[in-house]
Amino acid sequence: MAASSSPHALLVQQPLRPSSPLPCKQALLVAPLRRKTRLSTISCTAVRSPPVSPSVATGRIFNFAAGPATLPESVILKAQAELYNYHGSGMSIMEMSHRGKEFDAVIKKAESDLRLLLGISDDYAVLFLQGGATTQFSAVPLNLCAPGDSADFVVTGSWSDKAFKEAQKFCKANLIWSGKSEKYTKIPAFDGLEQNPDAKFLHICGNETIHGVEFKNYPSPSNKNALLVADMSSNFCSKPVDVSKFGLIYAGAQKNVGPSGVTIAIVRKDLIGNAQPITPVMLDYKIHADSASLYNTPPCFAIYICALVFEDLLEQGGLAGVEKKNQKKAGILYDTIDESNGYYVCPVEKSVRSLMNVPFTLKKSDLEKKFIEEAAKEGMVQLKGHRSVGGVRASIYNAMPFAGVEKLVAFMKDFQARHP
Amino acid sequence: MAASSSPHALLVQQPLRPSSPLPCKQALLVAPLRRKTRLSTISCTAVRSPPVSPSVATGRIFNFAAGPATLPESVILKAQAELYNYHGSGMSIMEMSHRGKEFDAVIKKAESDLRLLLGISDDYAVLFLQGGATTQFSAVPLNLCAPGDSADFVVTGSWSDKAFKEAQKFCKANLIWSGKSEKYTKIPAFDGLEQNPDAKFLHICGNETIHGVEFKNYPSPSNKNALLVADMSSNFCSKPVDVSKFGLIYAGAQKNVGPSGVTIAIVRKDLIGNAQPITPVMLDYKIHADSASLYNTPPCFAIYICALVFEDLLEQGGLAGVEKKNQKKAGILYDTIDESNGYYVCPVEKSVRSLMNVPFTLKKSDLEKKFIEEAAKEGMVQLKGHRSVGGVRASIYNAMPFAGVEKLVAFMKDFQARHP
Fold it and tell me: So what EC number does this one have (chains A, B) (predicted)?
């Protein structure tokens, strides 16, 4: 009674048209598809329609959003191809039991690929959680501190400030450095940090999404028993990291590695199992570590997309190469800003400028709205700075192609020439 | 500089083949697609390959999983068609800022359609959260009780038991009735419930996914000021509910209304704003109500799928009609069990049998493995009972077609005839 065969997946890649600057890869898909199958008996002829309206974008645009953010085009195409019938199972990945063999393979591969990418040893648990980094702002002190314990916070922007404020509910949280008076444009010198000798951990935010400051290396807790804890939401998997320097790394996926809805925690195993009694069950790392992130139903689809992204990053050769690409992209953008004779201004100290989020302003701030609107018309969207700081922000995560940044800097130069 | 046009979406529906009992709708999709556009200049000729292997299912199968569970086929096809380029935006819905106009329209429509479906008044907030019902097991007492407050729990199965146990961390939780000694096959008579006069709320689980017992109507808290609170994860939107009888309803989406990764809470507004000081920020309803579920990045894709499901339920005419369909499906399944002369046994008391989850055993329990295996071969999967209870369980949520249950009961009769 098994169903008979049906047409198979056909992915047709068309060459980029010289007239189009967009990565307009086109895929012709048959929904109930199967992998590794014969394509030879399907023939298709696609003839372009004339544009219905030149203002309607038909292909990929360059999406500079801070998160949710652009994903690798190949990942979206694969997810689309598989969405109706995952690997011939007759079900969408969205419909599958999280305890079935298909999803089991997905989450295990996601974990093992992430371990490869970041060189995560068996001393660490890798957890796929829900609730965003904001949930971890509570979970970190609840899991690592007794109520009276002390913990140190370096506040380099809005996100580490939120982590610091939330931690005050659950431990004695100390603000040992704040960049607020300098509008969050700096990272402190590590030797000048006055850490508390009894602090259980030292918390940093690896990259501040809103302010665009990024740690290029990491401080060590002065107390040998203390732990370094990092929110790496917005630069996770954008470069190699020596995980062994950290007690805990956590990251919302929706910048570099997936859609929103899944949060990854990498926790040194010996730290697990000491949550405060008031810890909600879903915030207790032990619960998730003991059940391999399957204590209750996980966000399966988001984990599946992460798995595709990790696979893609490995196929690119891993994070050292990814970092080089990110340096090159950020390089031409910061150079354009710095060589604009003050037309564009990035307030962040050069040594700690983020490779991921590039905030800048126009000297003539009344032109910023026009800048953002014109860029959008040319297929570069989501360039508005965060509502708390204004200006312009270009988020250029792993999946932003070099061509996208090239196009942006060409536009910036042109805009400057047209509006001197 | 706008991109030029590209091939457009083409949805080809093929008639069902008489030889196939599966709802094998087939869609031919062009990935970078746009709605409402001209199709005439695309021509495709698809010639079937012979089956690679007859054992590989190529179309939809009937998925009886308890959750994540089957979704409406039309929803999956629509999500697939839109995945690469959402409404001509040049982005996937997965890549969009949660504060952009496209996602804003999605989440607002999801909320307004859900309000229509359930007749939710403005006295209630509708929240899209993360972490599953299990997170609500903590959030409910944290938001509705001071630490010493009393709350009553009726335990009709595993899920209400978990809710009761978690609440003990945050309030004085009273177990006022348990079906454990009768293996969770009953719902108590409401007039016999010994409620505590000082209880802040009375908690029930509307439908126990594992044990298959469902409330057909609802008890009232004896204290006029107390609230009825229900976990409706596994029968949410399967029938009309008078929301005004409840202080709070919560539900994980992954049964009737979406994929895993989003949890919906319907909270009476006057109850919001009194969370205990130790409430993690992400568990505080006020945080989410004040920011329309956008305090931090929500699980955008999961919410988008829910929006498509709500739209589909409205197009079906709403929940009264959906309930009728569910009654009809469950009816033929329970009839088959009851008319099998004890070959199949459902342990649940008839008056409270779930329309969603139908657990049963075979008198000859050694045949259960064979039953499940043979059903899978015929395209009916995920029929294994929960690991804690064994046996067989057919979850027949909204999106399970009548044809799926018809096929299951035909198989059951045939199996019984073949293995008397």
Answer: 2.6.1.52
Would the CB atoms of A142 and B95 count as touching at under 8 Å?
no
Element (H, E) at B176: strand B172-178
Nearest CA-CA distance, residue B272 and chain A, Å:
19
Q: How far is B236 from chain A (nearest CA, A)?
A: 16
Residue-by-residue pLDDT tens, chain B, 420 positions: 333 333 333 333 333 333 333 333 333 333 433 333 333 333 333 333 333 332 333 489 999 999 999 999 999 999 999 999 999 999 999 999 999 999 999 999 999 999 999 999 999 999 999 999 999 999 999 999 999 999 999 999 999 999 999 999 999 999 999 999 999 999 999 998 999 999 999 999 999 999 999 999 999 998 888 899 999 999 999 999 999 999 999 999 999 999 999 999 999 999 999 999 999 999 999 999 999 999 999 999 999 999 999 999 999 999 999 999 999 999 999 999 999 999 999 999 999 999 999 999 999 999 999 999 999 999 999 999 998 889 999 999 999 999 999 999 999 999 999 999
Nearest to B56 among A21, A88, A135 (CB): A88
Q: Which of A299, A357, A68, A162 is nearest to B107 (CA)?
A: A68
Half-sphere exposure of B304 (CA within 13 A, CB side): 27
* Pairing of the two strands B199-205 and B150-155: parallel
**Among A25, A96, A256, A381, the residue to mutate for chain B (most B Cβ within 10 A):** A96
Q: Is the ipTM of this complex over 0.85?
A: yes
Q: Which tokens go with A228? A: 């370094």
Longest dimension (CA), chain B: 73
**Cβ-based contacts of A67 with chain B (< 8 Å):** 97, 297
Confirm if A151 and A170 have CB atoms less than 8 A apart. Answer: no
For residues A97 and A14, what is the distance between their CA atoms, to the nearest angstrom? 37
The yes-or-no answer on residue B104 being catalytic is: no
| Cross-chain Cβ contact B60/A90 below 8 Å | yes
Could you give the CA distance from residue A334 to residue A355 in angstroms, rounded to a whole number? Answer: 9
Residue type, A28: L
What residues have CB less than 8 Å from A77, skipping those under 6 apart? A11, A25, A27, B31, B84
Contact, B142 vs B279, CB < 8 A? yes
Residues of A annotated as catalytic (active site), given as ranges:
159, 231, 255
Tokens standing for residue B348: 């649940």
The residue length of chain A stands at 420
- The answer to whether B12 touches B64, Cβ cutoff 8 Å, is no
